[in-house]
Amino acid sequence: MTHWAFDRRRRWLAATLAVVVAWGALASAQTNGAPPANTPEPFPAKGETLTPFEAAGLDGVTRRVAFDGKGATILLFFLSGCPTCHKMIPEWNRIYLRRPPGLQVIGVLMDREPPGFFQTMPVAFPVLRSPGPGFLRSYKVSRAPLTLRVGPGGKVEDVGLGLLDPIRIGQIFRP
Questions:
Q1: pTM score
Q2: 53-172 — its CATH code?
Q3: Cα pseudo-dihedral 127, 72, 95, 80, rounded to 10
Q4: Which residues neighbour 144 within 8 Å (Cβ) at sequence distance 6 or greater?
Q5: pLDDT tens series, the chain, 175 aa
Q6: Which of 85, 119, 128, 159 has the fewest CB atoms within 10 Å, i.e. the most exposed one?
Q7: Mind giving me the DSSP string for 12-63?
Q8: How confident is the model at residue 3, as a pLDDT?
Q9: Nearest-CA neighbor of 171 among 147, 143, 136?
Q10: How far is 40 from 125, CA to CA, in rounded Å?
Q11: Where are the domains of the chain?
Q12: Which residues pair with 80 in a beta bridge?
């Protein structure tokens, strides 16, 4: 390829990139970065009420998760194939081991783990398998990792989506 052809191709690529960036900025400015009004939140919002559910533990025993106690329940939604979840699990383990008395913590595995997952990624907190996609839709869980603090009666008190720093995790796990 001649120098002239290379330079022409480079200018064409730069112009194309500029158009793509401008198009993205225009689209972002039109929506102010907010999702369209008819798009539901990808997670439960504070104040929403969650219903009790039943799910099988890793040992195959079905357990009922009800929010009728005096204290809060922390739900930790994660995927075995999610790199961000892999970063959150050690943080969740640390805070779980130091949790305040009376705070119930339950992990909810949203997918089927590969063989040996829990040997390579130890989990200190109890884990239940998600009852299925209908359950996740009813809870508005479409992304992971998701940390939910649910108070008595099933009222969502706090929500943390994605990779959280230790201070933010501590706020969700507060007494």
A1: 0.76
A2: 3.40.30.10
A3: 30
A4: 77, 78, 79, 82, 84, 85, 110
A5: 555 554 565 554 444 444 334 444 434 333 344 444 455 567 899 999 999 999 999 999 999 999 987 889 999 999 999 999 999 999 999 999 999 998 999 999 999 999 999 999 999 999 999 999 999 999 999 999 999 999 999 999 999 999 999 999 999 999 8
A6: 119
A7: HHHHHHHHHHHHHHHHHHHHTTPPPTTSPPSSPPTT-BPPPEEEEBTTS-EE
A8: 53
A9: 147
A10: 30
A11: 1-39, 53-172
A12: none
Q: What pLDDT does 16 receive?
A: 46
Tokens standing for residue 64: 């009922």
